[in-house]
Amino acid sequence: MPLRTVSGSIAAVAAIAVVLAGCSSSGTQLISQRTQGYEISEAAMAQIRPGQSQELVTIVLGSPQSTNTFGDQSAYYYVETKVQQTAFGMTSIKSRTVLAIYFDKNKKVIDKAVYTAADGKTVTVESRRTPSFGEDRTFIQQILQSFGG
Question: Around Cβ 69, how many Cβ atoms within 10 Å?
Fold first, then answer.
């Protein structure tokens, strides 16, 4: 057998072995892990205490990703999402954490809380449609009816 054919076959087998090594039976290979949104650090959370002003919270933590006002109270929400990306470009959410800072009517911190997926509640989206008044007709049916058909 010529040397060129043997070396070509070895190169082909080596290339296939490399490709198959990437497809392990345990799943896909992890390329990167990253944090989206705010990165919640213990040091920053330790600086937030009851009685501090809303402005100081903004200086320490930055602008919140979401706010809420209910009655005399308000809240700032900082969301941290940890994402993993596989070799094939697929991303999956591994964890999501929400830091909530609650303020009183004087814009002073009254409490803080950290929520994870375990604290959440699954909400079922209703797929039924609300019936409308009258019949459901297509555009063509409406046009034909306007001509008396």
Answer: 9
